[in-house]
């Protein structure tokens, strides 16, 4: 027997409406009792990247990277002491979390591949592994280990792995629709 597919609005209305019905739908979707599907999923990776409900994590990561670069450059050029706490906070996030986070997203693109706490722990652990490797690589280049090459290298790594993760997440979505 094939059940009729309902929209989320129809499902919530059948449950009586309100926040409790929405919460119940979320809990049932989390447990796998019901399956929530986008009726019009993105067909291409570019369309996937342009739909914030799918790629908000990507744009947030790129924005955090851009803000870190801007803050570091500004504090280096104009010697703005009031920006230093922001530089420290963004720099710590940029080196201790974001590179590992993008790598985890690229390695485990499925939403149910890892629990959120596992993603967090792996993100920090992989960042602590990747950053020294980037430094080791830079040590054997003509640029050496200075602020600008380190910042550029981490940015290239982060954006590249985030873009790979975006593509892989789109493929997972496409495969789940089959």
TrEMBL record:
* Alphabetic keyword roster: Membrane, Transmembrane, Transmembrane helix
Tell me if Membrane is a UniProt keyword of this record. Answer: yes
Recorded hits in Pfam families, A to Z, give: DUF1616
The segment(s) forming the DUF1616 domain are 69-177
Taxonomic placement: Archaea, Thermoproteota, Thermoprotei, Desulfurococcales, Desulfurococcaceae
Q: Which domain of life is it from?
A: Archaea
The protein depicted here goes by the name DUF1616 domain-containing protein
Q: Which organism is it from?
A: Desulfurococcus mucosus (strain ATCC 35584 / DSM 2162 / JCM 9187 / O7/1)
Q: Membrane spanning segments where? A: 56-82, 88-108, 120-138, 150-168
């Amino acid at each position: 027997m094939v059940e009729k597919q309902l929209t989320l609005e129809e499902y919530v209305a059948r449950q009586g409406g309100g926040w409790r019905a929405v919460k119940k739908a979320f809990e049932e979707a989390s447990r796998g009792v019901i399956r929530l599907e986008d009726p019009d999923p993105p067909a291409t990776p570019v369309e996937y990247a342009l739909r914030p409900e799918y790629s908000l994590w990507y744009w947030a990561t790129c924005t955090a990277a851009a803000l870190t670069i801007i803050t570091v450059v500004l504090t280096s050029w104009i010697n703005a002491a009031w920006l230093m706490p922001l530089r420290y906070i963004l720099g710590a996030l940029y080196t201790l979390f974001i590179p590992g986070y993008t790598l985890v997203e690229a390695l485990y693109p499925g939403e149910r591949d890892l629990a959120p706490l596992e993603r967090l722990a792996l993100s920090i652990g992989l960042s602590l592994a990747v950053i020294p490797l980037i430094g080791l690589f830079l040590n054997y280049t003509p640029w050496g280990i200075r602020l600008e090459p380190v910042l550029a290298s981490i940015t290239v790594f982060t954006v590249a792995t985030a873009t790979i993760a975006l593509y892989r997440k789109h493929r997972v979505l496409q495969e789940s629709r089959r």
